[in-house]
Design goal:
This protein has 4 helices and 15 strands. The protein is globular, with a radius of gyration of 17 Å. The chain has 250 residues and is α+β, with helices and mostly antiparallel strands. The chain has one domain: Creatinase/methionine aminopeptidase superfamily (Creatine Amidinohydrolase), CATH 3.90.230.10. Strand 7 and strand 8 form a beta hairpin. The strands form 4 sheets. A 5-stranded antiparallel β-sheet has the order 8-7-9-14-15. Strands 1, 2, 4 and 5 form a 4-stranded antiparallel β-sheet that branches. A 3-stranded antiparallel β-sheet has the order 3-12-11, with no helix packed on it.
């Protein structure tokens, strides 16, 4: 049975706003650590300290048994990469996905960054994915439908000859990390629930250079592209307000 979509009160949105500000600061600082030679476990350790310094807890640590504090996915890895001994190298495309709990509320964000210089195709993938996120956010208006966001993301990515991942989707967020509704990054416009003031959504395009198809590795977590080609991921937590979408994690 699907749970109903929970609308957040102005007081709850204010806590989520504070959480989002903290998270924006954490991920910005963390992205500076992405240098050639650092291990993903070391990046995870930096994240843990940063999260604690903002009076927050890591949302992913122990979530359904996830061992890391954050998700770090490299090149053809799409999402849910486990931090470990892997060393970052010049030219790698790195996805940082960070969630925190602050005052019992959840906030979630992700970005993709290159280690040193990355090739032009990867640069283009990164930029298109980020722009696709903002095209989606622009549709997060009261009285639009949920799939207006999905359609905006898909249209923009495909117009640029990339594909959108279908097996993993965005989601509602607030009192839990994953709430209703699920938010695909593909689909026709004007479908699904009507967006209402008080909804809070984690909008997160995952865009691939090749096929949209993915598989999960034997670790039970790491998602990779089926054809081994690179992928990018950006995410913001966004509140639907009377005056339009408010990006809480910016």
């Amino acid at each position: 049975m699907k749970h109903p979509i929970t609308l957040k009160s102005p007081e709850e949105i204010e806590i989520l706003r504070q959480a989002g500000k903290r998270l924006a600061s954490i991920i910005k600082e963390l992205s500076r650590s992405l240098k050639s030679g650092i291990t993903t476990a070391e990046v995870d350790g930096i994240a843990e300290k940063l999260i604690a310094s903002h009076d927050a807890q890591p949302a992913f640590k122990g979530y359904r048994g996830f061992p890391g504090c954050i998700c770090i996915s490299i090149n053809q890895e799409v999402v849910h990469g486990i931090p470990g001994k892997r060393v970052l190298n010049e030219g790698d495309l790195v996805k940082l996905d960070v969630g925190i709990i602050y005052k019992n509320y959840y906030s979630d964000t992700a970005l993709t960054a290159g280690v040193g210089q990355i090739n032009p195709q990867l640069e283009n993938l990164l930029n298109v994915t980020k722009d696709a996120l903002y095209k989606g956010i622009a549709q997060a208006q009261a009285n639009n439908h949920l799939s207006d966001i999905s359609h905006a993301v898909q249209s923009y990515a495909e117009k640029n000859n990339f594909s959108v991942v279908r097996d993993f989707v965005g989601h509602g967020i607030g009192r839990s990390l994953h709430e209703e509704p699920e938010l695909p990054n593909f689909g026709p416009p004007h479908c699904g629930p009507v967006l209402t003031e008080g909804m809070v959504l984690a909008i997160e395009p995952m865009v691939n250079i090749g096929t949209w198809q993915t598989k999960i590795l034997n670790d039970g977590w790491t998602v990779v592209t089926l054809d081994g080609k690179p992928s990018a991921h950006f995410e913001h937590t966004v509140a639907i307000t009377k005056s339009g979408p408010e990006i809480l994690t910016e």
